[in-house]
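Predict the 3D structure for this chain.
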Amino acid sequence: MKKYIIPSLIACIALSGCNDFEEINVNPLSPNVNQVEPQYFLNNSILGAQQDPNIAERVFVLYWKTASRQHLSTGIAGATDNDSWSVEYWKYISEWLNNANTAIEVANEKKASGNSQPYYDNLIQASRIWRAYLMSEFSDNFGPQPILAFKGSNPSFNSEKDIYYYILDELKDATAKMDLNQPIPGDNIAKYDMAFKMDWSKWVKYGNSMRMRIAMRISEVDPAKAKTEFEAAANSNMFISTSADNFSIAEKPGWDALTGVMSREWNPQLLSATLNNLYIGLGGINSTSQLPASQASAIRADNYIGVKYSEQFTTLTNDPSAGYWLDGLPNKIDPRAYKTFYIPGDFSSPIYSYYPSYTNDATTNSGTLTFANNSTTTINTVNTWNAFTIGNWGVKGQRNGLRGLIGRAPALGKQYRESTNSRIFFASWESYFLIAEAALKGWSTPMSDVAAYNKGIQDSFNYNGVSQFYGQYINSTDYNRDGTSVSYSHTTEPGATHTMQYKDPATNNLVSVAVSYPVNTIYKNGAFKNDKLTKIITQKYLANVPWLPLESWNDQRRLGLPFFENPAIETPLVNLPNINSGNYMTNSIKNFPQRLRYPSSFRNSDPNGYSKAVQLLGGEDAVLTPLWWAKH
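Done. Predicted structure below.
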């Protein structure tokens, strides 16, 4: 039997030295290629990439969700990665890639030996499409990788440009070679395709949608190539266009690869300041029309920003909500917010998550603020809506008994926590937002930018069960706290400030204040807050919560959109030395993570490969070194 030498990319070599196909991929009781089927390996690859709790809490939650600002956590968002987590991820994704490669090799070898099945050719193409996704995930995180890692020898690392070109070529060729007239195998075989049950047309749609995604990924640095690839994929009219075509994998409770990626109790995944500023006011939908009458008294005026607690809340950040505690619920908010994050103390909510193992849970829904004179005040957090800036709050953080505590701030709903959902890898709304961006660029697309933009919103609203608000929402000209509105034709800029009122806790008097809209100096030098591209990426970002944090991180690195506030620096952040007390109101790509460092397991096991990878990276092996396609 042919033996497959797995190169240095594959963790088995790096960690244990094994390199034979039999040792890595085949049960010892079934060592012969004639005794295995290629679909087993595709199944194992997709299953593994679903991420078991060990890797999901490190990569999906602590890396991707943190970097994309989906929840309150500094970590990688403060440019601090963890080598042990990266070692694990390198091992896992190498295994996923290895299984995808092996599915292709086994099918080809069985064909060559005369043991082919009618579905093998299509299974090979599906495995190539899936392998293209895994390669993109790898390079989106680390950067350069060896394209030919699966060709039976230890290859050299390739540049990111070569990698993404290769991915695009694979997607183009694999979708073209898929025979849509080939019958879907019976359930006993189709069950080994966890995504589409060997519905070949769905694999073609996924392949074309992935081609659109990768083409847009390189659009800022290679627009001609991006345009050609995107137009070919989009105008095939075979892309993921309905929820029925979404690439998703059903979760189940337990502790294996099908366990929910966001299921660990220890991290409540509290609402982030980034999300909160995008949500509040966006779409002009009143909270009164979204919540039961019992919560109406908690809804505050539209021009009210909260109580100003100068001694306990940081202001050394360009977060437009910094310094205030909203002692109630926002007057207007994007309707997906209440469907994704539960309101503190709202025990009757169908999405409320309760964690009895934590002493700081929502049993009392109160917190203590301490003042410089050592006096304290107790804050009731029931029916309040707040998010906290990441970073270092210094002494103010020590005085704040609200920040980061379970039950005191909105947190991710239980529908995403209990392993009863389906993890989404690609959804129809992403196809439409990609088309909207492409049409805005003037590329040839199957629909206009405004039509695609609205359809992306509609699909997201349908998914979140808020379709009743769609018509009002897409016509709204209300600005959120970042100065962006929903209506695609409404591109009037909001101005530098807007007048709000806050409560002085010493007197309980309302005080007027001019609150600045943030200036996103990464995107077009801060000239726009409400142009069409900002709208598209804002809506794409909100639709991708919480399933697609890596794509949201990719967009922010690529474009600087949507607006991410700088981490607070009451005490300097060691790994973000660019931010200081003189420039914390100015954004820079030096203030945000750009990648994961290569793990020590790779660096130690293959120093020559590591040296080549860093050379191709074009900078030091650091979290702040931008990838080739990212905004420079």
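The chain has 20 helices and twelve strands.
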